[in-house]
Each structure stands twice: as structure tokens, then as C-alpha cells.
Amino acid sequence: MDAIKYDEIKLAYSVYWMIKNGIVQRNHTASGVNWDLVNHEEVAALIEKNELGLQPIKLYTIPISKTKHFLVFAKNEQDAKGHCLNELKRIAPKVIDITDKINKSFWFPERNQYLSLRELREETIVFPATAMIYEK
What we know:
By secondary structure, the chain is α+β, with helices and mostly antiparallel strands. It has five helices and six strands. It has helices at residues 2-5, 9-20, 40-49, 77-88, 117-123; strands spanning 58-63, 68-74, 96-97, 105-108, 113-116, 129-135. The chain has a four-stranded antiparallel β-sheet with strand order 3-1-2-6, sandwiched between helices. Strands 4-5 form a two-stranded antiparallel sheet. A hairpin with a 4-residue loop joins strand 4 (105-108) and strand 5.
């Protein structure tokens, strides 16, 4: 299901809610779905309960100087802070969720190619993990 693969949690839960309530069948296509029928309050409750067991890995940035940021893949802010302490031996002064920037691509000279942070996350096996140190 693409909604889960691409971290579209609300979409994934909306589809789940529609299936659960008999509004759509598993073989329906998105173009044939009336999205106005979704009960957003019930979907929010499903997300809160984490009924599908989705724990998306988010992207966090931790400023480490005026021009450098430590980018971390982690389940939550606490894991990102702990990873910063383990890797950089310093307490994270600030942790910012930048998951909305996960499609941004960077040049990786050791691979001689551009990779998006999403692609990098998909290659990562253990979390939390360092994505990169980014210099502005």
C-alpha cells in the first residue's frame, strides 16, 4: 500500500477506515473513491490508537553549529536526542522534525549520485541512524 510506504499516515488510516466501514473494497482504485465520506474524527482516533501499528521513521535535524546540522532518522524526538548524544557526545540543544523535507535530494560523492533522504532512509536497517551532516 503506497500510503504506508510513503508515510502518508492519514491517507493510510482513511483507506483503512473506509474498508473497515464497508465504504470501499480492497480492490477499489483511488479514482473511484468518494473521499468526502471519510469521518476525520474517527480517523484521528484510529491514528491516536495506532491501530495499524504504524510507527513511521521521521527525519530530524539538530543544529550543531551556525552552519551545520546533524540529520537523524528516528521514531521520535527522544530517540533523535539519544542518537545525537551517542554519536556526537553532546546533548542536542534543539531537535526539529523536518520529515516534510524527506524528498530532498543531495549529492553523495562516495556514491557518485544524488539520493533523496527518503531513499537513504529506505536503505537504512537500524534506527535511530545518522542521515548526514548537512552544511548550509
